[in-house]
Design the sequence.
């Protein structure tokens, strides 16, 4: 599992710092002592745990003979056994100490985009001048997802365009029509920091074949368990199919413009109702690219299986587009 969309890392330095030793055992002013005598990580309990977010905490103890510096990070994942090999690596910050000191440094990282009702494991690790330490593993469980009281009937969120489905007024992970919301790889149900084949849920160990939705199983449409909109919202919410995007393209009027300074397209139906699709770009590696495009996943895989079908909006052109499944696109949910 490699999850999480948004990280705010904080480092509170120097809880304790003790120095002034003229000639510590094994060292001295002649440079014969070790640089880092002791490096120890302690993982703290997670705080402010909510449906999609939590704050990770921990501390690093550093004892040095000479001035030293290092970096700290968290590993987080849903499988404790593979936490440090396949878990998401979250940068926590840097630390340093002066000659002959003992220093304790506190770290925290605020994560969002976590899957509701899920147990996560995490651990703090650090490296300083070639010496590494990994702390104790701590777990927490996010709160369960809230769902509409009646499946698919959150009326304030749904717009009837007179088509085969109702369209949500804003993107998955957003709170208003002009917001980008979260970015997802196709068939994954949580955002993450880095989008590449080696972080993709459905790639195998060689990154050359796919474990699901492939030529062997013949699956061409996402199951509900792999549909981010269904997993996050519940009820009758889901990702649109390629055919439902085709209806949207062909049966509505598309007008380019801005909503609160955000560029996008207003999609107006024959009944006069409309939705706004912002240009949000895409996520590749750890970057947000092509910000003058609107790119929205459908629930259908391309016949190649390595690609999936999407809606592409750019420079007045509205079309179907296929691309590698591991990149991060936005999602506009629908409801039956």
Sequence:
């Amino acid at each position: 599992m490699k999850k999480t969309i948004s990280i705010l890392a904080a480092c509170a330095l120097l809880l304790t710092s003790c120095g002034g030793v003229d000639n510590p055992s094994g060292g001295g002013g002649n440079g014969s002592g070790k640089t880092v005598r002791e490096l120890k990580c302690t993982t703290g309990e997670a705080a402010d745990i909510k449906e999609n977010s939590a704050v990770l905490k921990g501390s690093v103890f550093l004892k040095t003979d000479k001035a030293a510096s290092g970096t700290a990070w968290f590993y987080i994942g849903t499988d404790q056994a593979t936490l440090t090999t396949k878990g998401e690596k979250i940068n926590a910050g840097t630390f340093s100490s002066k000659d002959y000191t003992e220093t304790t440094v506190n770290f925290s990282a605020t994560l969002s985009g976590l899957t509701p009702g899920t147990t996560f494991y995490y651990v703090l690790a650090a490296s300083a001048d070639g010496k590494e330490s990994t702390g104790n593993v701590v777990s927490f469980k996010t709160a369960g997802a809230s769902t509409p009281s009646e499946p698919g009937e959150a009326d304030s969120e749904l717009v009837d365009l007179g088509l085969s489905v109702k369209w949500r007024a804003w993107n998955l992970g957003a709170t208003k029509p002009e917001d980008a919301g979260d970015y997802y790889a196709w068939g994954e149900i949580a955002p993450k920091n880095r989008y590449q084949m080696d972080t993709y849920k459905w790639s195998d160990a060689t990154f050359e074949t796919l474990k699901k939705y492939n030529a062997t199983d013949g699956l061409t449409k996402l199951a509900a368990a792999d549909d981010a909109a269904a997993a996050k919202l519940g009820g009758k919410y889901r990702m649109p199919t390629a055919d439902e995007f085709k209806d949207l393209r062909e049966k509505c009027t598309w007008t380019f413009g801005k909503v609160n300074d955000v560029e996008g397209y207003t999609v107006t139906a024959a009944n006069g109702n409309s939705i706004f699709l912002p240009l949000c770009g895409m996520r590749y590696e750890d970057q947000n690219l092509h910000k003058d495009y609107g790119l929205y996943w459908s629930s259908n895989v391309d016949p190649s299986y390595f690609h999936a079908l999407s809606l592409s909006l750019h420079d007045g052109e509205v079309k179907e587009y296929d691309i590698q499944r591991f990149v991060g696109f936005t999602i506009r949910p629908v409801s039956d």
Observations:
- DSSP finds three helices and 22 strands in the chain.
